[in-house]
């Protein structure tokens, strides 16, 4: 939906909470607790607009049954993150989440490093996007904030791109102010370019209470997906409180109420 300023941004940016690392802790002991589905309910209580979970090929955190339970129990949209493989698309077509976010995935990585090679994988991605879209699933591609990649995503018919904020967050957290400013500018330019192409713009990876503010000021971003920091913060404050704070910071930044 277009805003009066011509951008396609949502009036109220959404917050999706990624609960993968609750399952990481559960799997460390091999039992049933802590339960990621219980965490998802708490995140919703704290103000999450949606829940994200990544079913990795090696099932190191979320498992197939978690994803099924999330779909059955949640009243908010479920964003199923997955590598762009035939196996994952088949599972997504069975579970039918609200959205699927296709990401690059390598077994040896600790988290999703870099965006999807949309240009190199055009031929593989096209039928996946078509099949998921035909089943009523909203497809998002997790991408580097690069204009050529966004153009390829639009050409493939993906309705949504999620801009990778990891490089910005890494530089910010390392105290590299000039590098962080450059990365933020890339995200800002990509959000505007993607919006002009008619893409819905999401953002995520590495975001914290500090790094979310400058990103949330970018008007075209309709949704944030945040996990690791919130699950860590939950150890100290509880998950609902951590999510509520993140929600407030995003809204204040969007309305420029955080600017002194
Ligand atoms: N978005 C995508 C596509 C991701 O792969 C991840 C990590 O699973 C996130 C958002 C959340 O990143 P983080 O856990 O660093 O907040």
Automatic annotation (TrEMBL):
Keyword set includes Transport: no
GO molecular function: pyridoxine 5'-phosphate synthase activity
Classification via InterPro entries: Aldolase_TIM, PyrdxlP_synth_PdxJ, Pyridoxine-5'_phos_synth
Presence of keyword Transferase: yes
Active site as annotated: 54 (proton acceptor), 81 (proton acceptor), 205 (proton donor)
Catalytic activity as recorded in UniProt: 3-amino-2-oxopropyl phosphate + 1-deoxy-D-xylulose 5-phosphate = pyridoxine 5'-phosphate + phosphate + 2 H2O + H(+)
Entry binding sites for 3-amino-2-oxopropyl phosphate: 18, 29, 206, 227-228
Metabolic or biological pathway, per its Swiss-Prot or TrEMBL entry: Cofactor biosynthesis; pyridoxine 5'-phosphate biosynthesis; pyridoxine 5'-phosphate from D-erythrose 4-phosphate: step 5/5
Main location: cytoplasm
Subcellular localization: Cytoplasm
Regions that span the bilayer: none
Site positions (Transition state stabilizer): 162
Residues noted as binding 1-deoxy-D-xylulose 5-phosphate in the record, renumbered to the chain: 20-21, 56, 61, 111
Keywords on record: Cytoplasm, Pyridoxine biosynthesis, Transferase
CDD domains: PNPsynthase
SUPFAM superfamilies to which the protein is assigned, alphabetical: Pyridoxine 5'-phosphate synthase
Entry EC no(s): 2.6.99.2
Subunit structure, interactors included: Homooctamer; tetramer of dimers.
Protein task: Catalyzes the complicated ring closure reaction between the two acyclic compounds 1-deoxy-D-xylulose-5-phosphate (DXP) and 3-amino-2-oxopropyl phosphate (1-amino-acetone-3-phosphate or AAP) to form pyridoxine 5'-phosphate (PNP) and inorganic phosphate.
Record-stated family: Belongs to the PNP synthase family.
Protein name from the UniProt record: Pyridoxine 5'-phosphate synthase
Organism for this UniProt entry: Camelimonas abortus
